[in-house]
Amino acid sequence: MKKYFFFSVLISIIIACGNGCTGSREVKEEKKIEDRDRALDHFINGNLLDQKGDYAKAILEYQDALMYAKDPAIYNSIAKDYSILGKHDLAISMAREAVKLNPTNLNYHRTLAEIYLNALYFDSATVVYEQIIRLDPSDREAWSTLAHIQQLRNPASAQKTYEEILDRFGPDGDTYFQLAQIYAASNKIPEAINALKGLLSLDPENREIKKALGDMYLRSNEPDSALAIYNELLDIDFENIEVRGAVARAYLMKRDYENAAKQFESVMKKDSATADEQIRFGQVFVSFIETDSAVVPFVINMFERIRDKHPEDWRPYWMLGAINNIIREDSIAAINFSRVIELAKWNPDGWVGVASFYYDHGKFEDAINLMHEAEKFISDNYRIQFILGISYQRIRRPIEAATALEKALQLNPKSLDAVSALGLVYNELQRYEESDSMYERALQMDPKNDLVLNNYSYSLAERGILLDRALAMSKEALSQQPENQSYLDTYGWIHYKMGDYKEAEKWIRKAIDLGSTSAVVHDHLGDVYFKLSDKEKAIEYWKKASEYDPSNETYKEKINRGGL
Hints:
Elements: H1 2-52, H2 55-68, H3 72-84, H4 88-101, H5 106-118, H6 122-135, H7 140-153, H8 155-169, H9 173-185, H10 189-202, H11 207-219, H12 223-236, H13 241-253, H14 257-269, H15 275-286, H16 296-309, H17 314-326, H18 330-343, H19 348-360, H20 364-374, H21 382-394, H22 398-411, H23 416-428, H24 432-445, H25 450-463, H26 467-480, H27 485-497, H28 501-513, H29 519-531, H30 535-548, H31 553-561
Helix pairs in contact: 1-2, 2-3, 3-4, 3-5, 4-5, 5-6, 6-7, 7-8, 8-9, 9-10, 10-11, 11-12, 11-13, 12-13, 13-14, 13-15, 15-16, 16-17, 17-18, 18-19, 19-20, 19-21, 20-21, 21-22, 21-23, 22-23, 23-24, 23-25, 24-25, 25-26, 25-27, 26-27, 27-28, 28-29, 29-30, 30-31
């Protein structure tokens, strides 16, 4: 009897527990359904608000939905709205959560990638697009977007991606175009040609692609291949001046001056050709002057004809002046630049051209007067102030030189020439702290600039300070120009200041043997010989220095004293 009673109680407990547990599960299921329905209601409301463009209120609905269901779709929707509102960090946080909850969903990855792009976080966007491609290698849009991002940051990686796109998906215009740009920028000309050929195969009648291919053949030094394409273009558009210019360039590369000149004749005969077009065409020939002097007569003839056809246009005169400068016909250049001044007083090119002629020929006073005249018509021009400064410096008026160069530097703070010249002028004014500051600034701009290295090291040597550094700078300058007489003198003079007179004699002697007529260099060698106890030679070189600069009383005093 006891046994039966035990089993009946146990069964009662099991039945009671079973009924209670079942009831609990039903309550939980009902709660889940209720939460799901509420989340869905808020989610639908959020979608409706999105359609109306009310993204802020939509986010509030989505946030309410999250209270009932942590669904990745809700996070994804919030991420999109935050991105639209420009709240990129919040958008990224939501998008990451969506990806975390469902890492295989491509749409969530795409949302995250697009948000990174909108926020200009290109490196992070790259990582996500690479993940998308791993999940779905057939996603062509992801491949293309990845390549475009890489093109901004790492062209070499972009090149590989574009090449992979061609291998996977076949010929594509944009891919060929982007590859052609990357190849050309990295000077991979044969590859660029092949890419342009691929692009042309997709669009055989496209004139711009044909022109680009012809231009690339020129870069590859294949003028005949370029001419074949250009002639096709001329068959379609005989009067196209840009193509005519390209044809002329191809013939110039072949040194076929006659056919190159015929292209110019074609332009000159065209009644509708403007002065702009004719000058631009002539500039094609100008670019060959420095590498091929045989083209000079053709170029001069061209611009003389343009000048005669447009006598009131200053530009042909300026081009002729520039050409005269290149071939060292300075006096003719000055005449042409003077005509530029007459026709266009507002244009600094003419003024600067004539002033440069004066400066190069040692007519520093004339350069100064002309630049002051130019200031009446042109205010605040860097080149005018720079020429004023260096001209004043050459006639030993350092205060006026400093004023002009300071203004030049204000107008062009990145001018290494102005910084270097100002360092020299401050040194002459014994404003050594400012001089050193200018030289240090110049070396930050160009650590290997030989002129700055030489001038700075000479300044330090004259003051007898930082001689080890001065020697190192001078040595670097001399390594770049081993036969520069001034640099040789500087190097020797630093050795003199260091007490190494034999080494000083070697280098300063070399400057004179190379033909130096500098009074300072001869004076330096005189000082060296005096230190070497060769008084006779010392006086000999001091006398030479005095001959080169008769106004210098210091040299005469050394001669009279017979010593330093």
